[in-house]
Amino acid sequence: MIQESLLLYEVVKFAAAPLTHAMCRPHITGAAHVPRSGPGILAANHLSVLDSFLLPALLPRHVTFTAKNEYFDGNPVSGFFMRLGRSLPIDRESARAAQTMLDEAAALLERGELFGIHPEGTRSPDGRLYRGKIGVAWLTLKTGAPVLPVALSGTEKVLPLGSKVPRPARIGIAIGEPMRFEGDHRSARDRRRVTDEIMAAIQRLSGQEYVPVYASSVKGADGGAPARTSSAEAGG
């Protein structure tokens, strides 16, 4: 069943590639840093709901992303593609669910696959780069998989906030060199240190202004309900 699903995913991806390239005119740098085989964690900034669709669509290897539950249940089209791509759902309000997702991601990496995550945990409310959550550090320290920092740009123009219909816009994808870390995944200090180093690498690639607070807290201060941070701080 899994093999059939992956085959269908590759067929859909191949069929959609011309449209994706025509609409987004992607400029990709650093693609050679993505390993041809073996595990890797793609840690990307987060500007648009489309980020976890576009990055896997434009890379040759299959990438399993994490995504909030609403992407699976809120829209039948996004739900179809999330399930087709074997994305891992995350309930941001449940510490247990967040840890379950991280355990599944670790197993995926130990099988030699690629995993994608947005360490900020939610879309940037204003285009700036926000403090990363420590799930990405837990994963790399637990599994030894390298982290590839990724800077996305222009994706928020393809699907502006409040819009339901994508529009043509040029996007950029910059992939940095693999990063490897030493430390104990059980150590809060090591997890924070590694996460901050990953966010610094993303900032160097993206050129975004860095804000040392969680994006969810800024969204809450602007009048929206802040996302509760689970103890696992997985990211999404």
TrEMBL record:
Broad enzyme group: transferase
Signal peptide from the UniProt entry: none
InterPro entries named in the record: Plipid/glycerol_acylTrfase (IPR002123)
A Pfam family the protein falls into: Acyltransferase
Stretches assigned to the Phospholipid/glycerol acyltransferase domain: 40-155
GO molecular function: acyltransferase activity
Top-level taxon: Bacteria
Keywords of this entry: Acyltransferase, Transferase
Its EC number(s): 2.3.1.-
Name of the protein in its database record: 1-acyl-sn-glycerol-3-phosphate acyltransferase
Originating species: Nonomuraea coxensis DSM 45129
UniProt lineage: Bacteria, Bacillati, Actinomycetota, Actinomycetes, Streptosporangiales
Protein's gene: plsC3
